[in-house]
Amino acid sequence: MKKNEILKLISKRLGIQKNTVEDVLETFLDIARQELENGGEIPIPPLGRFKVQKYKERNSRNPKTGEAIIVPEKNKVVFKQSKFLKESVAGLPPTTMTGIDLQAARKKHSGQLSLLD
User: Fold this and answer.
1) Domain check: are 11 and 51 in the same one?
2) Residue 92: its pLDDT value, please?
3) Where residue 116 falls among pLDDT bands split at 50, 70, 90?
4) In whole angstroms, what is the distance from residue 39 CA to residue 52 CA?
5) What is the DSSP annotation of 33-95?
6) Residue 59 lies in a domain
7) What is the distance between the alpha carbons of residues 38 and 33, in angstroms, rounded to a whole number?
8) Which positions ≥6 away from 57 have C-beta within 8 Å?
9) Which of 14, 49, 67, 80 has its CA 20 to 30 A from that of 33?
10) Domain count within the chain
11) pLDDT of residue 63
12) pLDDT at 45
């Protein structure tokens, strides 16, 4: 799905202008980027969360030449899927999907950005 398609769907579902939706999405993405740059994490209930994984410097070999090299430490953004998303994508029926109660999840995460609606 492309960004433009997402904007149209949100605009239609909420009955607000596409430009407003785009402003909100761009603001969210900017906040998320800043949070990740600072080593934080971004939860998106009930899908999962984005976080920064730190990898230490390590020794390795160049696969072509066999030469020993040092791979510098680095940070990488990773997505940790929730059990709900994992089972949902696997096609499990809602009754067997970890027993998640969407109403309870909505209450628990009220006030947070949520894709439950």
Assistant:
1) no
2) 81
3) very low
4) 6
5) HHHHHTT-EEEETTTEEEEEEEE--EEEE-TTT--EEEEPPEEEEEEEE-HHHHHHHTT--GG
6) yes
7) 9
8) 70, 71, 72, 73
9) 14
10) 2
11) 93
12) 87
Q: Are residues 30 and 70 in the same domain?
A: no
Residue 53's domain spans which residues?
A: 41-112
Q: What is the pLDDT of residue 91?
A: 86
Sequence-ordered list of residues with C-beta below 8 angstroms from that of 111, at least 6 positions apart, any chain: none
Q: Are residues 65 and 88 in the same domain?
A: yes
Q: Does 21 share its domain with 56?
A: no
Asked if residue 49 and residue 29 are part of one domain, the reply reads: no
Question: Which tokens hold the place of 107?
Answer: 């209450």
Of 37, 75, 77, 69, give the one whose Cα is nearest residue 55.
Answer: 75
33, 51: one domain: no
Regarding whether 72 and 101 lie in a shared domain, the answer is yes
* 30-77: pLDDT as tens digits: 999 999 999 999 999 889 999 999 999 999 999 999 999 999 999 999
